[in-house]
Design a protein that fits this description.
Layout: E1 3-4, H1 11-15, H2 18-25, E2 30-33, E3 38-41, H3 44-52, E4 56-57, H4 73-79, H5 90-101, H6 104-108, H7 111-123, E5 130-131, H8 132-137, H9 139-149, H10 156-167, H11 176-202, H12 208-214, H13 224-255, H14 260-263, H15 269-279, E6 285-290, E7 294-296, E8 299-301, E9 306-310, H16 311-314, H17 349-366, E10 371-372, E11 391-393
Parallel strand pairs: 1-2, 3-9
Antiparallel strand pairs: 2-3, 4-6, 5-11, 6-9, 7-8, 10-11
Helix pairs in contact: 4-11, 7-17, 9-13, 10-11, 10-13, 11-13, 13-17, 15-17
């Protein structure tokens, strides 16, 4: 297994990580990333297999856990109840309860609201160059998930601020200030959600918080702490990655030589959305811990060892995709890894796909002359991969 060095905060890497992925993948399905001090999987076969292999999981084995630093304890207390960080049987119970409330029928019913919101946002576009990410891409996911949960959408700026501060804990540029901001945000976020959980327990409504309170799995319900963490997870994951998916997708379409109108018609829309998600996904790394000593892909994993699964690299694997560096919505697409796989497959994937499939056709139909006014730049947020802005004019 080859060893490579590449700072995840290097400006060139931030703007285009794919050449590094290609270099490492040519040496085999696994490599050692010295900057992370971690084995990484970069081929589609390896990433897909490890996402599904129950001998690997999100929870670090107990004997390897270190005490939580006191300065981030309030943040970790909330994350401790997040199903994203848990494994069966706790994960199975939490996910089952969430899926009882977060149903495909409920998500599909949001299509008219997403449509109306898109038109409302486009009506407010300024005449001069503006940031499409801020005025469109960021607003759709956070407003829709706020409506689903039943919290005021006029607090969307606070929700975005809290979410950005919390997910920054998982970025390569994490600092002591990052940790302090995350604790403040997590505490404020939890207090905000707690007030609505208390209200809905006494006065149920037609919203996701009420349904999560009522949901039962084998006679069990979500505890208050689990409810709060789940709502925060749905708000964070329900918009953070989707914002990047929408922004990256619009950038790709605007830079493409292809006819955007033809790519977004009803016959080709599904393939276009999946290719956009494959081509430049919003999340590039997810980690797992080995739960036993095991030999895979020519490497001997030890129990407790952490491995990084590079979703962005897997989606550009030339073994799985012909000319993977080319945006080609007509390709016969192998399953991509943008939403993960296995027991942790993203519960919000149907909503993200719906938001993209509604928002993108409306945007380009309403703004047929939409164009970039400068080179879009990706933000220093690895392992997330999203734009810092998208300046356009209509």
């Amino acid at each position: 297994m080859q060893s490579f060095s590449q700072s995840p905060t290097d400006p060139e890497f931030i703007q285009n990580p794919y050449p590094f992925y290609d270099k490492t993948r040519r040496q085999g399905p696994l490599f050692f990333w010295r900057d992370y001090n971690m084995v990484c999987a970069s081929s589609l076969a390896a990433v897909n297999a490890l996402l599904r292999d129950r001998r690997f999981g999100r929870e670090q084995p107990a004997e390897f856990r270190k005490p939580v630093p006191p300065n981030i304890q309030p943040f970790m207390d909330i994350e401790a109840h997040s199903m994203l960080e848990l494994e069966p049987p706790t994960h199975t119970r939490l996910r089952g309860l969430v899926l009882r409330a977060f149903t495909s029928r409920r998500i599909k019913e949001m299509a008219p609201e997403i449509t109306a919101l898109c038109h409302q946002l486009i009506d407010a576009f300024p005449d001069q160059p503006f940031d499409l990410l801020h005025n469109f891409g960021e607003k759709i996911p956070v407003i829709i998930i706020a409506r689903l949960l039943g919290v005021p959408e006029d607090r969307s700026d606070d929700l975005l601020k809290w979410s950005h501060a919390m997910v920054a804990m998982y970025q390569a540029n994490r600092s002591r200030q990052t940790e302090q901001d995350a604790v403040i945000a997590a505490t404020a976020f939890a207090d905000f959600i707690r007030s609505y959980v208390y209200t809905r327990r006494n006065t149920p409504g037609d919203d996701l918080i009420t349904q999560l309170i009522a949901a039962k799995e084998d006679g069990e319900k979500l505890s208050t702490d689990e409810l709060i963490s789940t709502c925060i997870l749905l708000l964070n994951a329900g918009h953070e990655a989707t914002v990047h998916a929408i922004g990256n997708g619009i950038k790709t379409l605007l830079e493409s030589d292809l006819s955007v109108a033809s790519l977004l018609n009803s016959g080709s829309l599904g393939g276009t959305i999946e290719e956009l998600l494959r081509f430049d996904p919003p999340l590039h790394m997810f980690t797992r811990y080995a739960y036993e000593d095991i030999a895979l892909f020519g490497y001997n994993f030890k129990r407790g060892e952490e491995i990084a699964l590079l979703l962005g690299a897997a989606n550009r694997d030339p073994v799985a995709y012909c000319e993977p560096e080319k945006f080609d919505p007509t390709r016969k697409l192998a399953p991509h890894t943008s939403f993960g796989a296995g027991v942790h497959f993203c519960v919000g994937a149907p909503l993200a796909r719906l938001e993209m499939s509604v928002a993108l056709p409306i945007l380009f139909e309403r703004c047929p002359n939409l164009r970039l006014t400068g080179m879009p730049n990706f933000a220093d947020r690895y392992h997330f991969h999203g734009l810092s802005g998208l300046i356009v004019r209509t």
